[in-house]
Batch of 2 targets.
Target 1
Amino acid sequence: MKNQDLVEYLRSCGVCEICQLRYLKARGAEYRNINETLQKLDVKLNENVENEELVIPDGIQPSKRARLGVCSTCLGLFSKDFQNELLNSILASDFAKYDCQKIVLAICLPMSLQLRQLAMWFALQRRFGASIDENNPPDVPIKEAVKLILHPIICEKLAKGYDANGLMINIDLTHSLEDEEVEKLVKLNKEAFPAKASHQKRIEISRGLLEKQYQPSKVKAETYEKYFQIPCSNVEESIKLTSIDLQGPLICVAGRYRKLSRELSHTPWILNGQRLMEDSIEEIIIRHVGPHFTEKLGKITFMSSGREDVDVRCLGKGRPFVLEIPNARRTCLTKDEAFAMERAVDASGMVSIHHLQVVPREELTHIKTGEEQKKKFYRALCALHEPVSVKILEQLQISASFNIQQKTPIRVLHRRPLHTRPRTIYSVKARVHRENPKALIIDIVTQAGTYIKELVHGEFGRTTPSLSSIIGKPMDIQALDVVGIDLDWPHEVDNSKQKE
Ligand SMILES: [Zn+2]
């Protein structure tokens, strides 16, 4: 089969030049300069379709298709007119509201295209016989061609890069013949793939099924021809754009927060429909960071590497957190903008954030996994009923790790199941408070998930051993700070130092 013969036959069937190249299996850039590629493939140019006599191969009805202008295989999908319509529709959408450098097109194609691909496959088989493989499509499939042809053109015209995680432009296409053809397709499906037993459920027609099952090795041309023409029927109307829907990318903004207040909950604290605390860490951070990326603050998810109780502060380098922001209008965050957000959060006086930055989505695993293995560093202010003795101080210098058994504390039983969990305490280091001889400041390193208040007082033996049982005296905890979290993520950025 010579390329020239193939192209002449395709032309006679009303196949556009781009689709001719698809049947010549052209790749990437070869679609950009059609004439050059045709010449390279030893195909004579068809410079004036209007006046040229059509070459009508044997057994094919004379056709006006080439003159109608709508390609019988892509239904105009690759025409200049459609490209312009698509571009204009994208520009008329909310596109300008998105400040994203990368885009991705998600085009929902009418099933008619798949049917036409099959019709041409049959036609080529009849025309060129065994040189057309019945298992491998004779063309570059439409879906792939959309990526090779439409994507680069649209990206170039919009001056955007391509990225599967970029702004998604969902494009719905239809064709006036689609309903009619799908109806016929359902009948064809029953005939071509009869259910083997009466109880067997018939497979619903879908694009995936069409792509996989509808090839000459699985559907007979004679069966197909009862419902559809081989080669494809004439069309006068081009493919139509029914809707464009934009979906911004999912952006992840990470940083570390310090909790400076002993009267602030982690997330909105609501009990029996009543708000118990006016604000929360989650809300303060989202309020100042969210609006830069989206109008829908309610869709933002706040996550952190663990959490602290309402009355516990988190100091030191702070706790890593991340905001997951869907359908973001922006993907960038400059150091200036990040620093302004950090200052706005700091102004709350209750939370402070730093190292604010956009991070790749894959890095979220740092926050989501390995929680149990992480070490936590605490500083507790504890009180005895008597002055601290040397013996007590010695008992509370523990450098070798030890295990405790901890029952779910009574205070969290309403939201956590009752279990006894083993936890590792890595070290304990106590010193006497400078101003109060009955008070101890104790630095404790534990496995994540340890309840520190209960580790100190023992909760009537529900945690054993406890610091209280170790010294054999009652001990209360007055205040607790988290002073370190064993997670070196996200990397440190000093947004106050502008490099831009
Ligand atoms: Zn075409």
Target 2
Amino acid sequence: MNPLAAELNEDIARCNPHTLEMLSELGHSLYFPKGILSQSAEAKEKAHRFNATIGIATEAGGPMHLTCFQEKLSAFAPKDLYPYAPPAGKPELRKLWQEKMLAENPTLAKKTLSNPVVTNALTHGLSIVADLFMEAGDHVLLPDMMWGNYTLTFVVRRGAVIKKYNTFTPAGGFDIDAFRKQLLITASEKGKAVVLLNFPNNPSGYSPTPAEVEAIRGTILEVAETGCNVVAVTDDAYFGLFYDDASLKESSFGHLAGMHPRVLAVKLDGATKEEFVWGFRVGFITFADGTGAGSEPLLKALEKKTMGIIRGTISNCPHPSQTFVINALQHPDFPAQKQQKFELLKRRANRVKEVLDSGRYDDAWSYYPFNSGYFMCLKLKRVEAERLRVHLLDQYGVGTISSGTNDLRIAFSCIEAEDIEALFDLIHQAATDLA
Ligand SMILES: Cc1ncc(COP(=O)(O)O)c(C=O)c1O
């Protein structure tokens, strides 16, 4: 093992040996090399005559660039667009995101957290989690209503096994008993579990109540106390889009951070869905160790290992989009503009509920609980989702997603409020054709 990796592992073990146990073999081996990047960083500080270190080209004291790029991007300085961004992301962006996270999640105020490390959006954050913490055969707990891409990231890439539990109780709440049952099985079979919580959920559009989050926390604590290590990951892709009064308005990360030495909390979030910049690819990964105060060296070591996997895969994340997000987060109109889009999406969610609650479609479907995010799901009564999806597309020109045998996912995020009734009328017509 590289001595730098061994040093990081010692830092982790000194703070919390359970966290070291959670790392995959790859996670154990990772380190951030003192190679070109750290020599360049040193030179940036001290090389006042000539800096002949880093692999970009310079001219007239700035990065070399072509006018055809700069004439379109002239609102931004070339230094904030063209050079490589640091492997952990632009420091200003990391600081701004941390401030935003603390402001929006008051529960985090008393917690010990790593600095957020910039990722190439959430999918990349998920793959970092898989690389750091998943070994072939490890169990990842997910509700049966889950984002399908987890399979590629965890199962295909890393050989982990997704263990699904039932998502909702018949009364329409988070099925805590199903979650507990699966977690206890995994704990006894493996002594380690990766729990992935995705709220607002894709595909259902559900976010839990504070009591449900407390029950999830209690269950994780229960298995940690039996000696099981838990990596508790929150996929907060749709954070902030909470439309009703009942759901928790914070990430469950705050409730999982620092709860028990055997529970490492990992938060994945980003600008993708929250700030409506899907193609920018700006996300973050943040760690909170179960030991809380005093775990700073461990958190630094996890940041370094994360930088190592970034350096070894994509080298660093795009610079222009980090600059664009910094600009937005500092823009005086950012809160008002974001609120306006939130209200628009909330109006659509409420309109969907109103239309569905008219009773006109009750012969064809019921619907799963939804109160947040971009989506909702119909629970079809008479026809399978894939058949309906194809028929809708071929006969009516309507695109939907079949997300389960009888589940049809509707992204109300891309349907104008005034078109929602017409959309469900067409889906109903198509379902009637096939019934
Ligand atoms: C639950 C969930 N997580 C993560 C992602 C991926 O986000 P990103 O585009 O930031 O990689 C998505 C995108 O659809 C998602 O629905």
